[in-house]
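Weekly structure sync, notes
Attendees: PL (lead), two postdocs, one rotation student
Agenda item 3: pending single-chain targets
PL asked that the sequence for the first pending target be pasted directly into the notes so everyone works from the same version. It is reproduced below exactly as submitted, 178 residues in total.
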Amino acid sequence: MKRSSLFFTKSILFLAIFLISASSKAQEVKWLSWAEAAKLSATEKNPKKVFIDVYTDWCGWCKKMDKDTFQNPEVATYMAENYYMVKLDGEGKEPIEYKGKTYKFVPSGRKGYHEFAATLMQGRLSYPTTIFLDEELNMLSPVPGYQKPKPFLNIARYFGDNIYKEKDWKVYEGDTGK
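Predicted structure, written out during the meeting:
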């Protein structure tokens, strides 16, 4: 009897440790392609805004933002509820359709760049850059650089909750205590 009791206690302890570690792990983010997000925006009855993470494979800050910011449970939950989330390789080779125009890869220097990424980043090829679009795929704002979870969430809420329609960013930023 004593042995089964010890086994039961160890099993419960193991299960508790497993559940605690599983709940503290990074949140899995469901990334879409541009084509998938554009299709959802066009076909959904109540489309979401679109968030685009422009990255490159060689960008260390892009990888850090993936790990620290986008997988943060609070950030991931908010973004999933309010945005179609798109990963866009700033050096991707596939053509992309946007507002009746086809954007392509442009060979330049050692690697080159994608015209769509350059357009979204307003010609400033800086990685990472996050892009916020409204429900009709109109530009709200590019946000260059690495963002920690809390400041990123403030920016995402500014656009996602339509605060930008009523309040200037500087006023909102002051309200959020950044």
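Discussion points:
- Residues 30-149 form a domain with the Glutaredoxin fold (CATH 3.40.30.10).
- Strands lie at 49-55, 83-89, 96-98, 101-103, 105-106, 113-114, 129-133, 139-144.
Action: rotation student to compare against the earlier draft before next sync.
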